[in-house]
Amino acid sequence: MNAVPLTKSKGRGCLGRRGSPPSSLHRRHTRQGLAFILPCFVLLGLVLGFPMVVAFVNSFTPLWSRGLSGFTIDYYRRLLQDPIFLNSLVRTVYFVGATVALHLVLGLGMALVLNSAIRARRLFRIVALLPWTVPDVVAGLVWGWMYDPLSGILNDALLRLGVIASPIEWLATPSLVMPSVILADVWRGYPFVMLVLLAGLQAIPKEEYEAAKVDGANAFQEFFHVTLPHLGRMIAIATILDVIWQARRFGLIWVMTEGGPARSTEILSVLAYRQYFKFFNFEYASAMAVVLALILVVVGLPYVRAVARRA
Amino acid sequence: MNRTLARLITYGFLAVMVVFNLVPFFWMLSTSLKTGPEAYAIPPTWWPLNPTLYEGYGKVLLWTNFPRYFLNSLVVSLGAALLSTAVGALAGYGFSRFFFRGRTFLIGVLLASQMLPGVLLVGPYFKMLARIGLYNSYLGLIAAFTTLTLPFSAWMLKGFVDTVPHELDEAALIDGCCRRQAFLRVVLPLITPGMVATLIFAFLLAWGDLLWVLCLTSTDSMATVTLGLSRLVTQFRVLWPQLMAGSVIAVFPPMILYLILQKYLVQGLTGGAVKG
């Protein structure tokens, strides 16, 4: 009856099995499927694939130069000896590591609170989500203004509370600027992790908690033996996606500090942008971006594999 | 005793987080209602002494190019969102209904393309668009934003097509529809809510971008809201009431849309790993 397999369970049975001779049915099916996805991949190749290749080529040779004689790996060799690049790489790891860790801690905390029996849960859920709806550029602007040494709300509050004796230059002090930027980013970024983990929490079967209670588990044992194991997958997904987004972060840092003062917030995306569009070191900037892209693809690969196989 | 402590910790944490979440919004709104001199008062006033709409909202809308930025953001974000939703719906159907060889690989490519950082692509875009005369144009920006929105849209729409029982298209095929009709007449109407959600998320993805617009436009008349606001900051005298009023206006549409559509978001981004 069902000539054309339509679902995974049925589909796997009669086609796609490696080594089996392709039937005419299989060929027709493949052709139809490809016809539907073709526009997407043609467009993707045009707007994304081609520029990606150009960027890769550009990291070895100036663009639109004739022949292969100009090819050199010097730009990559230079990267390895360039303290500005290496420092920026370390700074990127610091920024991404700190923001993602804090997103996870606050996101998990907030998800647990919102999953417990509290009053006005829906209202608090909306309040918890609000910062994530703000474009990162705007988050950077608002926090930059809150950090204003004389007219900003943060120093004023800390002065009134007696925590500090004189105004602090949050964004002009090299040792304070990165934590300040990180705090602004954490404000904007943690609600997404919260949202994912909350969905994960709500999917845990209630019976497991009841079983744990019967076995006499306390709250901590419940958390470590029931909640965390169930959340593992969601935590992994949220972490990988967040690492990738954070490593690409640009707007927030650009409007707050432009990478300064004295490069103290110059993460790789800012450095590569500046090398390309301010100093016109096209090849060198491309090499930096390729390194960043490779790191991200490697980080993201487990997620891609796991999700694509299940799809 | 133990339960009281747990409740205390829960509500204490909640209270701290609510303050943390809301203070920036409070400061943004408060400043947007102040006059210029009051915004620079030392120490600052928390509530505006004489709240005024003109100094912030009036001036940013009348004296600056802000309405133009808003229009530009609208055009390019909507353009990219429409394009990627249309193409993404086709791909979503293809991936959901056909199990051809290389399918897993192509889905992997789609997902992996979301990992590429913008800084890798802006350089080549800048040079290529300049060559073909699309630098500083809507079309160039729409193409650029499509790199952000298309993989996301196609993936999200595949998830929505998955929720439509395949028996429905089978029935249509048996009744003599061809594939195209089964898709257009049976599946498409059923995933309309999903398409709207995808459209809006793609729109918001483009709306929040700064890097691409910074690199691919040169004139103020092509700037988007994010770029316009960031330029207002780097001018040597920052007019905070106007800037915060502009921020409020820039935040308002995404906030409403996100709150309406939040339940789709988790499914879309995590690949249906949880059903929210």
Describe this structure in words.
The complex is a heterodimer of chains A (311) and B (276). Chain A has 311 residues and is an all-alpha fold. Chain A has two domains: 24-58, no CATH class; 74-310, Orthogonal Bundle (MetI-like fold). Chain A contains 13 helices and no strands. In chain A, helix 3 (74-81) crosses helix 13 (282-310) and helix 4 packs antiparallel against helix 10. The longest helix of chain A is centred in the first third of the chain and has 35 residues, at 24-58. Chain B is an all-alpha fold and 276 residues long. Chain B has two domains: 4-10 and 15-56, no CATH class; 64-234, MetI-like (MetI-like fold). In chain B, 76% of the residues lie in helices and 0% in strands. Chain B has 13 helices and no strands. The longest helix of chain B is centred in the N-terminal third of the chain and has 32 residues, at 66-97. Chain B is globular. Chain B starts with a helix and ends in a 6-residue tail after the last helix. Classes of the chains: A mainly alpha (311), B mainly alpha (276). At the A-B interface, helix 1, helix 2, helix 4, helix 5 and helix 6 of A face helix 1, helix 4, helix 5, helix 6 and helix 7 of B.
Q: What does this entry show, briefly?
A:
The complex is a heterodimer of chains A (311) and B (276). Chain A is an all-alpha fold and 311 residues long.
Shape verdict of chain B: globular
| N to C succession of SSEs of chain A | HHHHHHHHHHHHH
Overall average pLDDT of chain A: 87
Q: CATH top level of the largest domain in chain A?
A: Mainly Alpha
Number of helices of chain A: 13
Oligomer kind:
heterodimer
Number of domains of chain A: 2
CATH architecture of the largest domain in chain B: Orthogonal Bundle
Strand content of chain A: under 5%
CATH topology name of the largest domain in chain A: MetI-like fold
CATH superfamily of the largest domain in chain B: MetI-like
Q: Provide the CATH superfamily of the largest domain in chain A.
A: MetI-like
Low-confidence residue ranges of chain B: none
- What percentage of the residues of chain B does DSSP assign to strands (E)? under 5%
How far the N terminus sits from the C terminus of chain A, by CA atoms, comes to 25 Å
- In angstroms, what is the radius of gyration of chain A? 25 Å
Total number of helical segments of chain B? Answer: 13
